[in-house]
Amino acid sequence: MTQVIRRIAPIVLGVLICLSSLGCNVIRVSLNTSLAPEDVAFIVPGKTTLSEVVANLGAPDSIVDSDSGVVATYRFLDLKYSRINFGWLAKPWTPVDPDLIFSRTGLGVDAFEVLCDGQWVVRQKEFLRHLIRPPFYPYPFQRSGRSAPDELLLGTGPGRPAIMASHESRNDRSRSVADE
Amino acid sequence: MRIARSIYALLVITLLIQGCAFSRGTLGDDIKSDTVAALQKGITTKDEVLRLLGAPDRLLPLNGRDVFQYYRYDAKAGSLLLIILNFSRLSVKSDDLFVILNRDGIVEDVIASKRTDALAFRFWPFGE
Lengths: 180, 128
Fold this sequence. Notes:
Chain A is α+β, with helices and mostly antiparallel strands and 180 residues long. In chain A, 28% of the residues lie in helices and 29% in strands. In chain B, strands 1, 2, 3, 4 and 5 form a 5-stranded antiparallel sheet that branches. The interface between A and B is medium-sized, with 31 and 27 residues.
């Protein structure tokens, strides 16, 4: 009996693996290279110039004028899409073409903005929003809390989303590291 | 024997590339490095910039100066279509050139980067 189970086990495992990947699509779209806080840690407001930023990060995607100076924006996107069609399981046995599709898209869009004064010296730097890298996870009924850590969603102060506070503290940390 | 091996190799390669798809899309003209190098700060005039690069894709007023923006987008998509399991990856990168002209119409600064050189066809959607 044990020998039979040992022989059948790899076959069952193989079938399960094949079944789990039936009708599966995994797609990823990326626009430019994603920037992380550590990538922009070298920028020290009041010291770093736009030329130094460009030398490290390349040309920005846009430069616009503002009352207090010039804003250079770096945009990037990391989209992840996954889809499973469980209807494939029934295809061999049904005359119709059934579909039972679970899919999910994570649109990780973000931008990094640098505000410079008239002398092209960086005055402020900030990400537009916190980019939470979306996982390949086709189950659509899960709360988005799975991809966003709870501490980012709960808020830490009056009228202030934690997502901003977390980002600021991270940038402060970057600044202190750069200052050192 | 050698011919048989070659046929087998060809057969294996043919089987391996089955279900592969390559797609590419571009937007805008190529921004040539030597053209960018020809733009000299404090010397090149607006007319020369227009003659070298053509009309800009975008004209921006910036801090009392004019900025000519030129861009080019390149997209490469690779797909591995295994009928029941498909992987696709689309990568888009841009080349950007900003030519900053002072009030006299002379080039004050040039900001350029060429990201599309490092753009490759990729299939595997996981990882970086």
